[in-house]
Amino acid sequence: MHKAAEYRHCFLVGVNQCGTESLLVPILFSGAIEDAALPSSSSESNNTEEQGKLLWLKENREITETLEEYWAATYNSRQKELLDLKDENPLRTYMNTYPALHEPGGYALVS
Question: Which of 10, 18, 22, 70: CA 20 to 30 A from 60?
């Protein structure tokens, strides 16, 4: 028996190069719900939480306990992001993504 495809709308959230403006980009995908491998609510929740922390780091520059906590919690994601950068000067791009690195105590985040 052929399963009817369901279409679902999702939004991809992005940040501009300055890290100050959120963008919503609609995407459309199809597939039968029975065939979809949906993430568990726990892993989805953790991923959403980490994405929120990364966005927060991109929008805040004052070095506080919260920033240090989020910095440590997002280490693996930020390391992957840095290694995946394919532009001419990946270090500059990475530093511009996280404004706290430009602060007087920012060097301590990478030491």
Answer: 10
